[in-house]
Structure formats: structure tokens, C-alpha cells
């Protein structure tokens, strides 16, 4: 493992298709490569398991958390001795037999192969873009009902999001207020929205929360209907991009320096300067 002072993380970029076996082979190769570099945690993008060509195909490939896909990743985490952020798993919903609806679930697995946390995506991507792309995530996906308190990992305290959650600053501020040191947004940004907003949103979330922001990403053409922007990225608490993938499948690495984060917060004390008497305080509504 990397030293406790500056743990090394690996942030992955890939092109998922409807071929689950091929996707697993890609992710397995990336995870083993990161283990060889002594990363303590690997971050996979949204839809690491698959991207279907239609709603019908997407639903037909969904599994439960106890299914074969997650079991293979828990075994891989245990074998490689590292943590995994499984950025957006197509999880069968609680009433699957009657409503055929899924959750977009961010699953974190520790180095012993145990599921540490599951966050189900709260903000669903329903948009009609000017280039003709129309996406309706809510047609098959249930919105998550709660935020998850930051989890303690070898990389630091991590606040979990997924893709479209990135556009809501209240979400990141709530997680930072609960002690997050890293915010992670595994994504499958469209080409149009990625070109316009991807980097600026990631950097903005880092600057306003003074957290590391970690964003694994889908890239390139998944099928005839869908292409993703890529540019998996790590941003530091000052807003500097310290790791980024270019084109194609690959990994970027970054060291997480918590003392540096603490210096940024001390030197630019925005948390102390907040005027909650004027505009209130972001609340965290998950019950204890």
C-alpha cells in the first residue's frame, strides 16, 4: 500500500458496451494494473458493468447486489488487496418483480471484499439537448431516497455521488459539511455536456468545498445511440487538475495529501466565513 501520508488512488476510464464479460475483463485489467502500482483504491465509472442499447436491454441485464457481477468484484478486491469504488451499478429495485425498475447504485467494496456502502443516485438525468440527444433516466430508474454520510477509506473520507449529482452544489456542500475530504462523481457524461461543462463543474465543486474531487469516466462510442466524453479526472482542493485521462481506456493516478487540504482550508477559511445568518445552512437529512 502507498504510505498513509499520501495514499495513491487510481481513476479509470473505459468504454462500456452491452457485453458484460468484455466490460469485466477491461475493469479487471485496470484494477490489476493499479494494484501493481500499489494504489490503495480504484475508482470505476458509472455503468462500469454495462451500457445497453435500449431500455429493454438495460433492464434485461440488471442484477441484484448479491448477483454474479458484484460477487466477482468483491473477490477481485480481496485478491488484489485494495478498495473499489464501483461507480454506477444497474441494481434491481426493491419491487423488481412488479415494476421492473432499477437503481443507479454506487457500491464501495473494501480490501477484504465486503460492501462498505451503497449510494443510490439521487438526481436522475432527464434532458433534451439541442443536438437531438434525449435521455430519460427516470423511465427505468428509481431516484435515491437519501445521501450517504462520508465513508472512511484508505484514501480519506469519501462523499459518494454519481454523474448528474455533480451539477447540484448543495449536494457537495452537504457532504463536505459532514466531513468529506474527497468527493467522487463516477460519470458517463455526454459529448455535448462534457465539452461544455465537465472540467469547470469538477473544478468548481473542488474549489467551493475545498475537497479533492475524483471523477472516473466513460469515454467514446458505446453503441449507435450513445457516446461519452471521457476525460476522467482528479482535482485538488485548490481547484488544480492533478490527474487526467486523455482518449481511450486507461488510468490516471493521483496522491491524496490531506495535510495539504487542511492548509488550503486554513489559508482560505470560507467555511468559517459563511454567512448562515443570511442564507441558511445546507442540512443533511439522512437520519442517524
UniProtKB/TrEMBL annotation:
EC main group: hydrolase
E.C. no: 3.5.1.128
Domain CN hydrolase: 7-258
UniProt xrefs under InterPro entries: C-N_Hydrolase, C-N_Hydrolase_sf, Nit1/2_C-N_Hydrolase, UPF0012_CS
Keyword S-adenosyl-L-methionine (UniProt): no
Keyword Thylakoid attributed: no
Gene Ontology molecular functions: deaminated glutathione amidase activity
UniProt-listed Pfam families: CN_hydrolase
Keywords assigned: Hydrolase
Family matches, as PROSITE patterns: CN_HYDROLASE, UPF0012
Family per similarity comment: Belongs to the carbon-nitrogen hydrolase superfamily. NIT1/NIT2 family.
Protein name: Deaminated glutathione amidase
Organism of derivation: Xenopus laevis
Classification of source organism: Eukaryota, Metazoa, Chordata, Craniata, Vertebrata
Gene designation: nit1.S
